[in-house]
Amino acid sequence: MRAIAVAAILSVTLAVGACAPKTVNVRSRLLEASKAQDPHFPDEASLQLTHFAYIGDIETADGRFHVVYANAVIRGMLAPRGQAWLALYDEDQNFVRRYELLGRGRPLWCEGGKIYWSGFTTFGLPHEPSQLALFGPPDCPQSVPTGNVADFSQGLDHGLMRREFKYGSSGGIADDPLAGLAAAITTPDSPATPD
After folding, report:
1. Rounded Cα–Cα distance for residues 103 and 100 (Å)
2. Strands 147-151, 123-124: pairing kind
3. Which whole-number Å values give the CA distances from 116 to 98, 108, 164, in the listed order?
4. Element (H, E) at 35
5. Cα–Cα distance for residue pair 123/133, rounded to 1 Å
6. Nearest to 163 by CA among 125, 124, 116, 123
7. How many CB atoms lie under 10 A from the CB of residue 77?
8. How far apart are CA 148 and CA 114, in angstroms?
9. 3-state class (DSSP) for residue 96
10. In angstroms, rounded to a whole number, what is the distance separating the alpha carbons of residues 174 and 143?
11. Which of 19, 123, 156, 190 maximizes the CB count within 10 A of its CB?
12. What ranges make up the beta strands (E) of 77-155?
């Protein structure tokens, strides 16, 4: 009788376990999409992938996108150097776009349509020189904007680098060279409007 009860419990446990949903490894799927769909993904012969991190998701006017931060180094160099990039994927985990990173900052987290960075950075699309897409105000095409926030809220073609004082991203106001000037301008003794 006891053997029948144990067998029944074991059967139910196995049946329930077989019906449990399988965990989806988003990072693995995004890596496979990059290998298959990104024409500039490291070939492992000349460039070795050293970092591929799923940061989170952004919500934009164009929809929702997964965000990955990646690095690769040139093989065989005595002092390794290479490239870093940000890659975006649609909700079906298809590769959409790649942005080459030109600064030393690293993305930390996503919030709404924004990607928050550790340090100030700038980036573009050097693989498409006719469409160099450095983020910044459209009325200042000669500027190379930097910031600790990449804001894609208005869509992927309308991204802007911004500076935001947000705890955890770039040290906040302590990293801003104009923080003292901003504090002086907004003192209570300052007139509300110029004379």
Report:
1. 9
2. unpaired
3. 17, 6, 9
4. helix 26-37
5. 8
6. 116
7. 9
8. 10
9. strand
10. 24
11. 123
12. 82-89, 95-101, 106-111, 114-121, 123-124, 147-151
| Amino acid present at 4 | I
In angstroms, rounded to a whole number, what is the distance separating the alpha carbons of residues 42 and 49? 6
pLDDT in tens, 47-86: 999 999 999 999 999 999 999 999 999 998 888 788 889 9
Burial 89-128 (b: 16+ CB within 10 A, else e): beeeeebbbbbebebebbbbebeebbbbbbebbbbbbeee
For tokens 């000669």, the residue is 142
Beta bridge partners of 143: none
Structure tokens at 157: 């073609």
- Cβ proximity of 28 and 34 under 8 Å: no
Check: CB of residue 46 under 8 Å from CB of residue 74. Answer: yes
pTM equals: 0.69
Among 15, 128, 76, which Cα is nearest to 7's?
Answer: 15
Q: Specify whether the CB–CB gap between 28 and 54 falls below 8 A.
A: no
Q: In three state form, how does the secondary structure of 50-88 look?
A: EEEEEEEEEEECCEEEEEEEEEEEECCCCCCCEEEEEEE
Per-residue pLDDT band for 91 (boundaries 50, 70, 90) equals very high
pLDDT for the residue numbered 57: 97
pLDDT of 194 > 60? The answer is: no
In 3D space, the residue among 44, 101, 17, 22 whose CA is nearest the CA of residue 67 turns out to be 101
